[in-house]
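It is worth pausing here to work through a concrete case rather than discussing structure prediction in the abstract. The textbook approach is simple: state the sequence, then state the predicted structure, then interpret. We follow exactly that order.
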Amino acid sequence: MKMPAVKYQKGEKVMGRWPGSNLYYEVKVLSFDSMSQLYTVIYKDGTELELKEQDIKSAAGFQARSRSRSRSRSPGRRRSRSRSPARTTRRSSSRTAAAVAAAAITDSVPSSRRETRLKDTLEVRPSPLTTAPENNSNNKHETLEEKQKEENNTTTKVYETYLEAEPEKNQARYNLRRRKDDGAAKEVTAKPEQLEVEEAKKAVAPIATLTTQLDFGGAYFWLLFLPAWVLFLIIQVNLEDPSLANFPPPLPPLEAFLDAQALAFVILWIAFQAMLYILPVGKLSEGMPLMSGERLKYRTNGFFAIVVSAVVVAVALHQGLDLTYIHSHFLQLAVATFLIATLLSVYLYVRSRYAPQEQLALGGNSGNVVYDFFKGHELNPRIKDFDLKFFCEMRPGLIGWCLINFAMALAEMKQQNLEAPSNSMILVNLFQLLYVVDGLWNEEAILTTMDLMHDGFGFMLAFGDLVWVPFTYTMQAYYLVRHPNPLSFPALTAIVILKLVGFYIFRKSNSEKNAFRRNPSDPKLSYLKTIPTATGKSLLVSGWWGVIRHPNYLGDLLMALAWSLPCGFSHLLPWYYMIYFIILLVHRDSRDMSECRRKYGSAWDEYCRTVRYRIIPCVY
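Step two, the predicted structure:
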């Protein structure tokens, strides 16, 4: 097989386009991957990226085209543009603010703090040379690109105004800013025209670009697989012998999947949790800056909600409510919740088509209807002050998880004629209740997570929050109802110790990360060691984050192991959560590695040399 010719050689200096923009910078070619057809290049600030061949131009040819385009402009037109830069800047001010806020979101730092830190640094930043937007014939979603073309041309012209107005002053390719080096600040005087160019560069930054790399293995597959997998687990684990050797399980009749009373129960539960969410009880917390610069407020009263829910359930039991209904109608409840999650996802996608551009999620903005429906098109859909994503993330499914576990304990007592739940059932209930209560007590910490900051709200999160969590994370308790597993005292003690160790690592590491993300300059965190990056964000290499790169993953895995051990080793299905979680975290770690290497370049390599292990010390 003939290998494709390499157009740009290792060590060659070329002009590389910055992803998501029309700006070109001088870069050095490091290598070429013949399999992926991507060039690895390094920028002046040390950032390494992988670029396609069409995103790279030879330096000589690029400069020749730029000079030719500059000469083609008439002097009169150039003077006309140069007389009104203020008006152009005002028209683009909202875009400039959005670009600054978008950078702040990416770095998990408030925009005002980020701008202050940039002013305090001396760094080499390339001044871009721009070309007209290119028409990529390989784009499958040309319709949405046509909608953005006018905006891209407008922002490109803003920057060209500054380049063409003072061409003799804008030939320098790199500008200097102040940077703290070993604690000593070096002063550099910036010329007014340089500041103008910097402002113009901000105006060119895009608000929300089309997603071109579709991850998650294809939205079509997951839309079919996820509901089917939940149904399989529920049907299989309820068999007398849930061995996988009995696959496929016998399907119940079609009418067994739907039940009006189950649907009413689910609607009532969600409405009850929504009522608790909107009550003026608890703290109003600020989220991270959005692309528009706005910081949304969230009512973080999740702990209040679970306490009230527990009291209401206790009163209902006293009045004679039979909670074992949840066990006997588990399949119907799951199907009813799936229908509600699907209807919610359709509503979310339809309303996202009318949302402003700055309110869309970067990840769910591909132009592919199915993919955007699955991934989530709008970042923070709200009905007035009611945040749909935040509510679903922390309330109905998470608190419902505890309610289902408690119902399974009652069902175990009823089916096995016990006066109290078994030790195995008690451990599973207590362990998972501690996990949920901890999450709701520290509810504010979720505002700095990927789900809230970057992921759109679509089928993926709606199904995960409302169906996946309450109907698969309860699999251990559901299994123990019909398949008891007695525990000896030494085994019980060992499992409790394992859970406590995992919980300590999980909570301690997450608290360190959340505090550092919210305010890296907090004097209380001055003891933490960090590695600075070219983006202005620092990488934490202290505390648990100096031992392994994902200590919170390690804590999660230890707790998952403690949840599965009470079920014994007779069947594989109660271990599904542990197996699923290992696959999920390893996959997420590989995605994090690729993204961070692209984003932080050489600083990430230094971080990897400092913190060698990913999840398990001395193992992985």
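Step three, interpretation. The mean pLDDT is 75. The chain has 23 helices and 16 strands.
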